[in-house]
Amino acid sequence: MKILSVGCGNMGGAIISSLAEHGTDQITVVDPMVPSVPNGVTLKRDISELGEQQFDMILVAIKPQMIPDIMPAYKAHLNEDGVLLSIAAGFSIKALESIFAERCVVRLMPNMPAKLGRGMNGLFGNKRLTTSMKRQLDQTLTPIGTHLWVKSEDMLDRFTAIAGSGPGYVLQFIEDYMKAAMELGFGEDEARFLVLETIAGTVATAKASSEEIAVIRSSIVSKNGTTAAGLKALSQSDTLENLMKRTLESAYHRATELRGS
What we know:
The protein has 10 helices and 8 strands. By secondary structure, it is of the alpha/beta class.
């Protein structure tokens, strides 16, 4: 597959790096600012350097506000049966279709672990997305992690609130968990090691089990024990549950505002 990435910022660069490492695609990047690109990737500084080349997929990896001015010129470089794949948060399918009329348009919502090939990525495409295109995208995007096709653009906004923004919530929890560990007498490096290994091991345990999370949790909670005491404080008046609800609702509403603006 011939892939063109318009822009190569943090997330776009992470995706391109993962695809390049996989080594099955021909990748070109157009970016006037990026200092370098991964081995095997062709760097162009301006669209004029593309000549009459056409691509099977164009990745939109520029800021949303730049799309109306920059992307129209790239329509001529997308094969008629090609795919426009956008990671621009908040820029809707409808808005992309207004530029790339009569083309397959897909929005991809990646998250931070895509840099390590461990992303949880959401996808939604317009009516021109065929079964074969979907299969090809599944194969092409495998190097960046796991992905989920959602049934509507609204569900992509909900996905964004959970998984797209999710690493931020987890990192905030880790930071606060570390601070609490340090208050109990551990140094910063020790607290970081303790917290990260505890979380990593617990996640691995949950993924390896088919039991409900509540059942797994109950199996390690002894009556009147230390875990029970900690959980009682953590869940006092359903504080944590309500906080997570408000967190996801706030992120979801902001995602819908961005898409509507």
